[in-house]
C-alpha cells in the first residue's frame, strides 16, 4: 500500500481549521499530526512513499455532489455526460463522491432500473458513487422495492410533483411512499413544483407564440414552487416522514422550509450553484436561442426579486443545508430539440466540475465562512446521505478523499479553460474564481495534480449508504 504525507497545509473541517499534516496509509487517513511530520521520533517525510507540499493551502475533505444525473434519459435524448466523463470532470473540480439517480419511469420496475444504473456505472467511474432511487407513479410494488433498496444501501428516494405521465406521482401516491419512509427510515427527496399549474401555463404561452427559452422560466413561477413545497411539507407532517426538497430556487420556498424546521419537522433543503449566480434576465433571457443553455427545472429566477441573495442568506442561516449541482448536461444540438417550443428543450445545466470553486468564491466575497464552505460541499452531504465518518471528514479511519485547495490560485471557467464535462459550451463561461483545486486524492490515490488527470475509469467504487445521520 502507498503511504502519503500532506505537509504544511491548513486542515479545514466544519468544526474549525488547524495547521496540521495528514498521514495517509493506503486508502485511509491514518493520522492528523502537528506540523513537522514527526511521529515517535521518526521524520515521516523521509519514510513515506510520497510527500505533497500544501504550504499556504487548505486541505479539505473531498467534495460530495449529492445530486447528479449521468446518462439520464430526458425528452427523447440522454444527458451528455457518461459516468466516465462526468466523474472525471467531477474529480477535476475537487469532488470525490457523487450520488446519482437510478430512474424508474411510469410502468417500470424500480429494482430492474436500479440494476440498469449499476450496469451503466460499474467499471466506468473515476471517483466513488452511490445511488438514490427515483420513484414515479408509486404503486404497491414500489413500496416493497423501497425496503429492498434500503437493504442495498439506497436509502433515499426522489419523487416528482411535476412531469405528468413521465415522472409525476399524485399526492396519494406520495403519501404512501412517505408512510413507507417513515417506517423504514429512508429519506424522501422531492421535486417540488405544481405540475398541473405549469402544464397549463406552458400550453397558454405556446398558443400565444411565446416560445423562446425565456418563457421556460415564466411558465414555472415561484408560486408553483412555493405551493408544491408547502404541500410536500404538509404530507411529510401528516406521515411523520423526513423530507429533503431538491434544487430550491425561490425565496418563498425557502420560507416554507424554514417555517417547517422552526416547527420541529425533519425538513431539509438544497440549492444549486445556478440559483446563487445565474438569473432569468441575464442568462435565460439571452438573445435568440442562447438562453436554452440555461434551461433547467426549477428555473433560474429573477434577479430583481432577490432570489439569489436570499439563497446565500439561507445557506448562512442553515435554512438550506447544502449545495448540489443537479448536474444534467446537454449539448446544443440536443437543446435545439426545443427550437420554436421552449417546452421541448431538455432541462439541465452542467456544473459538477465547478461546484467547489463556485462555493469557494462565496468565501472570498464574504457570503459564507471557510468552515461553512467545507460543511456545504462535503460534511453535510455525507451526514445527510449516510456516509459521514467514511466520507466528508478528515479524521483517522476516514477514506483518504482529500483536496488541496490554493486560496492564492486562480481559476478561469469556460470552454477550453477548466471544462472537462462532455458539453460543447459552458453555462459558466467567463466566471473567474479566486482559488484553485491543486491536488485531489480519491481513497489515497492522486487523481488530479499539477494540471493533469492521473485517475482512471473504474477506480470509483459503489458506496453502500446508511440511513441519514440527521434522522437516527
Assess the beta-strand content as a share of residues: 15-25%
Query: What overall form do the CA principal axes indicate?
Result: globular
> What is the β-strand count?
25
- Could you tell me the radius of gyration in angstroms? 22 Å
Distance between the termini: 35 Å
**Biggest sheet: strands side by side, in what order?**
10-13-14-15-16-17-18-19
CATH class category name of the domain at 62-384: Alpha Beta
CATH topology of the domain at 62-384: TIM Barrel
The main sheet comes to: 8 strands, parallel
Q: Supply the CATH architecture of the domain at 62-384.
A: Alpha-Beta Barrel
Average pLDDT level: 96
Judged by helices, strands and strand pairing, the structural class is alpha/beta
Q: Report helical residue fraction.
A: 25-40%
Unreliable stretches covering 5 or more consecutive residues = none
Amino acid at each position: 500500500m502507498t503511504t502519503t504525507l500532506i505537509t504544511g497545509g491548513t486542515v479545514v473541517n466544519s468544526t474549525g481549521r488547524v495547521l496540521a499534516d495528514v498521514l495517509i496509509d493506503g486508502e485511509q487517513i491514518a493520522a492528523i499530526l502537528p506540523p513537522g511530520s514527526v511521529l515517535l521520533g521518526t521524520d515521516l517525510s523521509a519514510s513515506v512513499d510520497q510527500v505533497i507540499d500544501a504550504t499556504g493551502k487548505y486541505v479539505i475533505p473531498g467534495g460530495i455532489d449529492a445530486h447528479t444525473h449521468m446518462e439520464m434519459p430526458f425528452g427523447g435524448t440522454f444527458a451528455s455526460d457518461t459516468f466516465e466523463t462526468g466523474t472525471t470532470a467531477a474529480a477535476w473540480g475537487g469532488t470525490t463522491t457523487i450520488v446519482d439517480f437510478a430512474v424508474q419511469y411510469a410502468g417500470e420496475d424500480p429494482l430492474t432500473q436500479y440494476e440498469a444504473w449499476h450496469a451503466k456505472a460499474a467499471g466506468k467511474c473515476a471517483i466513488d458513487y452511490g445511488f438514490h432511487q427515483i420513484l414515479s407513479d408509486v404503486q404497491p410494488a414500489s413500496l416493497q422495492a423501497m425496503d429492498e433498496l434500503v437493504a442495498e444501501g439506497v436509502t433515499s428516494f426522489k419523487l416528482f410533483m411535476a412531469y405528468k405521465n413521465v415522472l409525476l406521482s399524485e399526492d396519494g401516491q406520495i403519501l404512501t411512499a412517505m408512510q413507507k419512509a417513515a417506517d423504514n427510515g429512508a429519506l424522501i427527496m422531492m421535486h417540488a413544483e405544481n405540475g398541473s399549474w405549469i402544464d397549463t401555463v406552458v400550453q397558454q404561452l405556446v398558443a400565444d407564440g411565446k416560445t423562446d427559452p425565456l418563457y421556460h422560466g415564466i411558465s414555472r413561477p415561484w408560486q408553483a414552487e412555493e405551493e408544491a413545497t408547502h404541500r410536500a411539507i404538509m404530507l411529510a407532517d401528516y406521515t411523520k416522514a423526513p423530507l429533503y426538497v431538491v434544487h430550491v430556487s425561490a425565496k418563498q420556498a425557502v420560507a416554507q422550509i424554514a417555517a417547517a424546521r422552526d416547527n420541529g419537522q425533519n425538513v431539509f433543503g438544497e440549492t444549486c450553484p445556478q440559483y446563487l449566480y445565474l438569473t432569468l434576465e441575464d442568462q435565460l433571457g439571452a438573445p435568440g436561442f442562447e438562453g436554452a443553455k440555461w434551461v433547467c427545472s426549477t428555473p433560474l429566477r429573477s434577479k430583481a426579486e432577490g432570489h439569489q441573495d436570499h439563497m446565500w442568506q439561507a445557506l448562512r442561516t442553515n435554512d438550506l443545508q447544502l449545495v448540489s449541482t443537479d448536474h444534467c448536461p446537454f449539448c446544443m444540438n440536443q437543446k435545439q430539440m426545443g427550437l420554436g417550443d421552449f417546452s421541448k428543450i431538455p432541462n439541465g445545466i452542467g456544473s459538477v466540475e465547478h461546484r467547489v470553486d463556485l462555493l469557494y468564491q462565496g468565501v472570498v466575497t464574504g457570503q459564507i465562512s471557510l468552515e461553512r464552505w467545507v460543511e456545504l460541499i462535503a460534511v453535510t452531504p455525507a451526514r445527510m446521505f449516510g456516509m459521514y465518518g467514511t466520507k466528508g471528514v478528515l479524521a483517522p479511519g476516514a477514506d483518504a478523499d482529500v483536496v488541496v485547495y490554493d486560496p492564492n490560485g486562480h481559476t478561469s471557467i469556460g470552454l477550453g479553460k477548466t471544462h472537462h464535462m462532455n458539453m460543447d459550451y459552458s453555462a459558466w463561461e467567463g466566471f473567474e474564481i479566486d482559488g484553485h483545486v491543486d491536488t485531489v486524492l480519491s481513497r489515497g490515490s492522486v487523481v488530479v495534480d499539477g494540471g493533469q488527470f492521473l485517475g482512471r475509469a473504474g477506480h470509483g467504487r459503489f458506496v453502500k449508504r446508511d440511513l441519514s445521520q440527521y434522522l437516527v
